[in-house]
Amino acid sequence: MNILAKRTRIRNTSYVLPDVFFSYEEYQKLHNLDLRELDTFSLWQELFKVKAALAQLDLRQQPFIAIGPSEFVPTLGWLKGRYRAIRRELRNRRGVEEW
User: Fold this and answer.
1) Phi, then psi, of 20 in degrees rounded to 5
2) What does the domain layout of the chain look like in residue ranges?
3) Which pLDDT value is given to residue 6?
4) Which residues of the chain fall below pLDDT 50?
5) What is the 3-state secondary structure (H, E, C) of 43-55?
6) Beta 71-74 vs 2-3: how paired, if at all?
7) Is the terminal CB of the chain with fewer CB neighbours within 10 Å at N or C?
């Protein structure tokens, strides 16, 4: 099992994985609570960063993200969840902008 160290990046991307022990902002990112604060352009940027991270993730050595003192989540699962959360937020905003 590979545990990612603090401030770990996905290889060949600029995407920094969240570290829940680093700051409250990182905790918010881990749980997708930061998406409402981002503007639409930043959401699109985040979506494409997550796509690139998913494309570059080495599935043979699936790293894990610490979500608590003894709790870990596979990075692949977290990235897929982040991708879905961003798409959902963009869809919700599109409905509001049409008014």
Assistant:
1) -60, -25
2) 9-97
3) 44
4) 4, 6, 98-99
5) HHHHHHHHHHHHH
6) unpaired
7) C
